[in-house]
Amino acid sequence: MADFKKQVSENITGEFFVDNTCIDCDTCRQLAPHTFEDSGRTSFVKNQPQTPQEIREATQALLACPTGSIGTLHQNSSSEVLKDFPMEIENGVYYCGFNSAKSYGGNSYFIKRSQGNWLIDSPKFLPHLVRQFERLGGISVIFLTHQDDVADADKYATHFKSKRIIHEADLSAQADAEEILKGKDVFQITQDFIIIPTPGHTQGHMVLLYQNKYLFTGDHLWWRRKRKQLGASQNVAWHSWREQTESMTCLLNFKFEWVLPGHGERKYLPANEMRFELNALVNRMKASLETHAGH
């Protein structure tokens, strides 16, 4: 629970506040960009929400915060807003909410489908989410993009008797996973699901393409809100920036309209515009490699 006595100095005075336990994971800024901003160290309240929609979004951020670093001065409507999660993005694709500090506040997603539901990475294991997933038909498969964002995947797998999919190179994060993928070949799991190995952030990083429209990108690719462009970061290429550049280039072979990342902003663009943005990112990444080689 957030502590008003420990609130960060940048907060604007009012009902909502952020305290100094914030890990600056960006969850609140994605859910309530009108209310929260980045100081470079933590998030803070830049505008107190005024409209019912702004208040609801700020309360969603309070609930989703992985470290419980957002608070209010008085009683709020969080019990009602709790029902917003998981939050449908489009056509049976949901953002789970309740990001976990175990994955540094990484986003996780849920896909509802008649042939069996999928969970992509993991939120906190909470009774509310368990009940909601049960209501939506359970979880057949848990796809883990990489070792950083597994969070409570093992608990969900045990509860729902789910099959976990992870790459061999990141297996240490879920050593008892039910399906282990190897190598760099593309895996066509079903007509709807394609798994694409994307080493770079970690050696075993993978992305998931659903219906040639939704790309769940883990820590490989995201939308940069302020720059208004697709992004990746050499600073978090723990395995290899060169391999991440190569695997990013491979994504040009696929069609998609949504980027749904573990960290960073999610984004929809028509397929041709998304390809244009991806190509521009690949060119920037290749240029950074050349610049580094020149030194």
Description of the molecule:
This protein is α+β, with helices and mostly antiparallel strands. The chain folds into two domains: 4-81, Alpha-Beta Plaits; 85-294, Ribonuclease Z/Hydroxyacylglutathione hydrolase-like (Metallo-beta-lactamase, Chain A, 4-Layer Sandwich), CATH 3.60.15.10. Helix content is 25%, strand content 22%. The chain has seven helices and 19 strands. It has helices at residues 27-31, 52-64, 78-81, 127-135, 153-160, 241-250, 271-294; strands at residues 16-18, 36-38, 43-45, 70-72, 87-90, 93-95, 109-111, 118-120, 141-143, 163-167, 179-181, 187-188, 193-197, 206-210, 214-218, 222-224, 229-231, 258-261, 267-268. The strands form five sheets. A seven-stranded mixed β-sheet has the order 5-6-7-8-9-10-11, covered by helices on one side. A six-stranded mixed β-sheet has the order 12-13-14-15-18-19, with no helix packed on it. The protein has a two-stranded antiparallel sheet with strand order 1-4. A hairpin with a 4-residue loop joins strand 12 (187-188) and strand 13 (193-197). Helix 6 runs antiparallel to helix 7. The longest helix is centred in the C-terminal third of the chain and has 24 residues, at 271-294. The radius of gyration is 19 Å and the shape is globular. The mean pLDDT is 96.
Quick structural summary:
The protein is an alpha+beta fold and 295 residues long. 25% of the residues lie in helices and 22% in strands.
